[in-house]
Amino acid sequence: MSQAAQTAQLLSLARSREPADRERLLAGIVEMCDAGQAQGQPTAPEVQILLDSIFMTLVVEAERDIRARLAQSLADASWAPPALINILALDEIEIARPIIARSPILQDHDLIRLLVQATLEHQIEIARRPQLSPAVVEAILAKDESAVLTALASNPTAQISPEGLRRLVDKARDVVALRSPLARHPNLSSDLAEQLYLWVGRALRDTLIGRFQLDPDKMAAAVEASLRSAHAGAPLVDNPPIEQAEDREEMEAALVEKLDAAGQLRPGYLLRVLRERRLPLFLFALARLGRFDVRQVRRAIDSNRPELLALACSAVGIDRSVFPTILAHVRELNGGRPGGGPEAARKASGAFGPFAPDIAAMAFRQAVSAA
In Å, how far are 70, 206, 213 from 194, measured between CA atoms? Predict the structure, then answer.
């Protein structure tokens, strides 16, 4: 079929609002453009204008499933309209993910704009994108969002400068999830490895010693000096409990990261780990599911406002009926916090209002920052 005949057929399908015709329209456009590219034949300008218009109509009017299929079809396309790609990149994260990860249309300025305009989930996907340029890396570092920085540290192809790595290592002092990917980062230097050694637990210390041939005695002395400085002259407690606590946090953060990467991290996991009396694992899992900073979740459970925890649970898909059980477990394991008593717990159910999870997530971040 000639390109003109194909175009006429597509125009006919574009006038229809039937879902089956929309599917055929999408398939026809992608097939025609792919065929032209494979043969090295550029699409005629007038036809390209028409296709761009049809694509934009599809995105504005199409159901979620069609938008998702459109994003998958166009993720690797070098001929896709830039305006369309940028719209899909701002769509809900499941639709945007393949576009952000693979589209050759997205340029540095597009990615930097997404970092400003899009959700935390979108920012994390940008940090995972292969071959990130120094300009985009710098924009990510400037935002200083822990979950996004962790994704960046886990991206071995991102063009992170030595100064950028130093900033990540400095951040690892407070952000546990950064430590493991940094210890394995291909561009980590010996000097930065020695600095990172001071923040990590025993398991990662062994990794750093083996990888960089660090002197164990020298590093043990550095750790002791660091502890003395931190305690400002106070008597030192024994190191093993501190190291064991750090190791446990690192292992729990790594476990949650692996479950999430395998697609096995689900909201039901939160209740399960609470029943097993593993509060730190609950914190890491809730932070990962909601793409929150784990420090935000800690602040929420240590507050006198159980509605903060309720908002976080609502954002990850926990049902209103399950929240009282979660709150009771958290209070039992966290010295009665979040406080506020039964009345505050009753009011917290209002966090499970008739709004989307992304709205609850936004409300949580804003509320916990003000707490």
Answer: 48, 12, 10
**Phi, psi dihedral angles at 275 (to 5 degrees):** -65, -25
Q: What is the crossing angle of helices 323-333 and 341-348, to 10°?
A: 140
Rounded Cα distance between 44 and 30, Å, is 15
Q: Nearest 5 degrees, angle CA 190-CA 194-CA 197?
A: 130
Is 110:96 a contact under the CB 8 Å cutoff?
no
C-alpha 82/C-alpha 284 separation (Å) is 37
Tokens standing for residue 299:
């602040």
pLDDT digits (tens, 9 = 90+) for 176-212: 889 989 999 999 999 999 999 988 888 889 999 999 9
Nearest to 58 by CA among 28, 21, 22, 93: 22
User: How far, in Å, CA of 124 to CA of 235, rounded?
Assistant: 42
Task: Let me know: does 114 contact 126? Beta carbons within 8 Å.
Answer: yes
- For residues 79 and 85, the answer to whether their CB atoms sit within 8 Å is no
- Cβ burial of 337 (10 Å; 0-12, 13-18, 19+) is middle
pLDDT in tens, 132-167: 999 999 999 999 988 899 999 999 999 999 999 999
Q: How far apart are CA 125 and CA 156, in angstroms?
A: 14
The number of C-alpha atoms within 13 Å of 231 and in the hemisphere containing its C-beta is 13
How far is the C-alpha of 56 from the C-alpha of 54, rounded, in Å?
5
Residue 50 · residue 6 · CB < 8 Å: no
User: Given this model, what pLDDT does residue 189 score?
Assistant: 96
Dihedral angle computed from the Cα positions of residues 328, 334, 336 and 341, in that order, rounded to the nearest 10 degrees: -60
Describe the chain by its helix, strand, coil percentages, rounded to 5: 70, 0, 30
